[in-house]
Amino acid sequence: MFILDLSHINTEEFSPEAKRFQINALRGFDGYINAPRGSLEWKEYWDEQEYYCKNGYSIGGVRITGEHYFYLNFCQIQLKEAIAVKENISKKRRVEKKTTFPAFWDSDWYYFTECEKAREEGQHMIVVKPRRRGYSFKNAAKCAYNYTFVRKSTSLILSEQEKYTKETMGMAVDYLDFLLKYTDFGKQRQQTNRRYEEVMASFIEKTPDGREIVQGFKSRIMGFTALNNPDVVRGKDANVILFEEAGSFNNLLATYRVTRATVEESIDVTGQIFVYGTGGDFTGGQVDFEKMFYDPETYNFRPYENLFDDGMEKTQMGYFLPDYYSKGGFIKETGLGGGTSATKEAELFIEQQVENLKRKSKNPNEVDAYLAEFPRKPSEAFIKIGTNIFPKTELNQQINNIRSQKALQYLGTSGILFTDKDGRPKFEPRDDVKPILNFPLKPDADGEGAIIIYQQPFLINGVAPDNLYFIATDPYAIDKGKDKKVTKRDSLGATFVFKRVNNFSKPYDMIVAEYVGRPNLQDDYNKNLFLLAEYYNAKIVFENDRDGDILAYARIHKLFHRLEEEVTVYDSNDSPKRKLGRSYGVSMSNIETKKQAASYLRDWLLQKREVTEDGEQLLNLHKIYSVPLLEELIKFSYEGNFDRVSAMFVAMLYKKELLLKPPPEQQRTSAYDDEFFSRMDSKFGINKMFY
Fold first, then answer.
1. Which distant-in-sequence residues (6+ apart) come within 8 Å of 100 by Cβ?
2. Other C-beta atoms within 10 Å of 67: how many?
């Protein structure tokens, strides 16, 4: 990604004034130039430095931007002692931090260069990065640079949490203090007790008649917290706007839209917005951030080709810094502490760390947490950690497999189900239907949905065998206004058809069909639901806390035989809980029931199946071909609408009940013989063969 030849350059030459400052300190002089302040020598020296800060600086045919030059030479930061790449890259070593000037990194060169290009083309920047790359220092330098060289300019620092605003504001003010003490760039400013809220390059001048007038450069830096207030900067004209740790914004998109309007009017762009996110810190704003990152042009962010996520070639993304660039301890020095990234060595180290965590950690989230904080590709940065117990790394890889293989992309066939003249259900593939293939559902998307069939029903004498299939569904909630009319589409109906384990039709224990949608009439959804039940000769298990009028539809159309009786729910000790007295379906209103279902689902996803000819161990999750379902599993939390996951919970609770009750005697080969809960094998005498 970063093409930069530094083999002929000592990168220290990009920091001549930082080096001068350090040499002077060794000689007992505290400053850049040993000349009287205001003298001709002083003035000529600082005029030259201002020129480089504004126009850039070149060494050996390589140019750095003025902002980068300013950062390297006039901004002191907390930096680790630089250590060259060692042969034993797996051995940890102690490093210390010291206050010094930044080292030159190839990734910083690329970043500052791209920011300049974006500014010249009227674009903003959305950035995803790993931890420990000093972006807070670079962000603060942007504000200090703007404050120092652009008269009457405004820099805004926004965050969801006040601590992020204060941290960046504090760094920026430290830079300003340094400039005021040691350079000719420093701007006199009024002293206030609002150091972390606003600083302004100004002073008060009294007129002969006693009036006070604000004078000075009049540039300023302001900090704001956008918590519950997306309009916090409405009407504020700014040159630079930073969204610090934007992944934590609960109202990110709304705040961005308001903020964008302050710097754009028609084709005119008067300021530049920077939206930053750190891997592992995507919480309330993850959905919005990910949407904006993977659709940069819609939001006027500088776009880049996605060269990282498998199957996403020729698609766009925002600016991404992979963890193997400028990683501590993996920099090939072409100057003191700086130079080019040792990417191959860093990638090998990361892979070793991942494999080590897989072997040693008992916590399934450890690998995900590591990759989220130190991502090699954008999709890893967006891995949701915390209460999500699903195998996100493997799920993400399955998404990449589907997107990179056309055979998997077109495995499902979209169409409609209808009843023929003889009253039998028929499936007709159709190109004009629109299955819902995105998560979350886009506001302007058609919510009608469509049936997708991955595997046609196995038939004996024209009929699917009894008990070979079952259907799990999560009905959609009805949102009504005071007039009782549907007002919004926050929830979708989600239905999956499962094929059970058997000895006569493979592959099995998988989703063979799905139907996700929210048609205008609930009866239309239920019609498709029951047609699927007829087509696969299956019974329906549904979440009965909101039945979506399923019972009423079954009553009217005499279809109760297609509904499974109330499912027994078991606790963590496999003791049955008291049923609620509802005739059909299963209740998931209890959070403990959801957590138990999530545990079952995780076990099922990771259950081993066959081994490929290449020696790859396939899991149940490798038989899921619904990208939106995989995306929901990755982003799942117990808050919000995860309708497909809820349907999977229903399926897992039903599979659990089938596992714990004896199979019907008339079944020569039990379709209930489902051994995916390995921890139950010995207790219930189930064969441990993997499928």
1. 22, 76, 77, 79
2. 23
Secondary structure E strands in 365-462: 413-419, 425-429, 450-453
Q: Dihedral, CA atoms, 583, 586, 589, 593, nearest 10 degrees?
A: 140
Q: Looking at residue 84, what is its pLDDT?
A: 45
Tokens of 275: 């939206």
What is the pLDDT, as a whole number, of residue 1? Answer: 56
341 beta partners? 331
Those residues whose C-beta lies under 8 Å from the C-beta of residue 229, and which sit 6 or more positions away, are: 251
Going by C-beta distance under 8 Å and a sequence separation of 6 or more, which residues neighbour residue 415?
427, 428, 429, 430, 433, 450, 451, 453
Angle (deg, nearest 10), helices 135-149 and 40-55: 120
> Which is it for the CA torsion 540, 544, 546, 551, positive or negative?
positive
Distances (CA, A) of 676 to 501, 506, 629, 652: 10, 16, 20, 10
Long-range contacts of 415-424 (CB under 8 A, 24+ apart): 415/450, 415/451, 415/453, 416/450, 416/451, 417/451, 417/528, 417/531, 417/532, 417/535, 418/531, 419/531, 424/534
* Spatial separation of the C-alpha atoms in residues 685 and 691, rounded to whole Å: 17
Residues in CB range of 561: below 8 A, 6 or more apart: none
Domains of the chain: 11-343 (3.40.50.300), 393-684 (3.30.420.240)
The answer to whether the CB of 544 falls within 8 A of the CB of 584 is: yes
DSSP 594-608: HHHHHHHHHHHHT-E
pLDDT above 90: residue 323? yes
Distance CA 509, CA 651 (A): 11
Per-residue DSSP letters for 16-56? HHHHHHHHHHHTT--SS--S-TTSHHHHHHHHHHHHHHHH-
Of 218, 187, 181, the residue nearest 76 (C-alpha): 181
Instruction: Give Cα 83 to chain centroid, integer Å.
Output: 32
What pLDDT digit, counting tens, does each position of 211-233 carry?
Answer: 888 888 999 999 999 887 888 88
pLDDT at position 691: 34
Q: How far apart are CA 358 and CA 514, in angstroms?
A: 33
Task: State the DSSP string of 163-205.
Answer: HHHHHHHHHHHHHHHHHHHHSS--------S-TTTEEES-EEE
**Which whole-number Å values give the CA distances from 246 to 112, 127, 227, 631, in the listed order?**
20, 10, 12, 21
> For residue 352, what pLDDT is reported?
93
CA distance 553 to 292: 41
d(CA 273, CA 296): 13
- Cβ(442)–Cβ(298) below 8 Å: no
pLDDT tens column, 603-636: 999 999 988 888 889 999 999 999 999 999 988 8
Q: Can you say whether residue 106 is alpha, beta or left, with left for phi > 0 and alpha for psi between -120 and 50 degrees?
A: alpha
Cα(477)–Cα(440) distance, rounded to whole angstroms?
16
Closest to 83 in 3D by CA, of 338, 448, 465:
338
In this prediction, residue 386 has a pLDDT band, given cuts at 50, 70 and 90, of low
CA 422/CA 390 separation, integer angstroms: 45
Of 18 and 7, the one with more pLDDT: 18
Rounded Cα distance between 165 and 101, Å, is 23
